[in-house]
Specification:
Helices cover about 50% and strands about 0% of the residues. It contains nine helices and no strands. The longest helix is centred in the C-terminal third of the chain and has 22 residues.
């Protein structure tokens, strides 16, 4: 089969390009299925689609026969090697993340304080030293992100204003991305809480 080369995809009858850009309405291509990869509305998605075509002009593979496209070039097969301890979705769509129980806020706060070696009353106090600020952030962000707690529930459990707890969550999320030590302490805290849950089941 001799490859057909055109300077405009609209000139190639079997490409489906005309359907995607709306010049032809009856064809084999499900245009919405294609356009959903480029945007939420047809007009915006078509503009993004055309921009992506224009962006390929600088690539050396444009105009090559199908067997010369870079994603068709033969490469040696390699075994899949996921990162140690990483969380993935398997081929059935199931997450490999450890399952965390949905706890009542009192139980969550009790387990969290035990894992962090702090009293609930101390966590709920008005004291503002850096150590307590960090513990509050750890408890708030892990509770909301991993253990299904709500900001207002944690606030009620500690006798705090929901706005304060919301600020703890935001501060912890920002700090995690910029402070590797804090990120590690958050992971350790999560593992400690998961371990505590396993011990209770046993």
């Amino acid at each position: 089969m001799v490859p057909i080369r055109v300077d405009d995809p609209a000139k190639y009858e079997w490409s489906g390009h005309c359907e995607i850009i709306g010049r032809r309405t009856h064809g084999l291509v499900d245009t919405d299925e294609v356009l959903m990869m480029y945007g939420d509305s047809r007009k915006a998605a078509r503009r993004a689609y055309v921009r992506s075509l224009n962006a390929t002009e600088a690539n050396t593979w444009v105009g090559e026969a199908p067997d010369r496209l870079p994603w068709w070039w033969p490469v040696e097969d390699e075994k899949v090697a996921p990162r140690e301890g990483g969380v993935y979705v398997d081929y059935l769509g199931r997450s490999t993340a450890p399952e965390r129980p949905r706890l009542a806020v009192e139980e969550y706060l009790s387990r969290a304080c035990k894992a962090l070696d702090v009293d609930v009353d101390e966590l709920a106090s008005r004291r503002r030293e850096p150590r307590l600020r960090e513990l509050r952030e750890l408890v708030a962000v892990l509770g909301v992100e991993k253990f299904g707690q709500r900001v207002r529930e944690i606030a009620a459990g500690l006798g705090k204003n929901p706005g304060s707890v919301s600020r703890w969550v935001t501060a912890a999320a920002e700090r995690r991305s910029s402070d590797s030590g804090f990120a590690q302490r958050l992971r350790d805290f999560d593992e400690a809480l998961l371990g505590e849950g396993s011990k209770r089941k046993a």
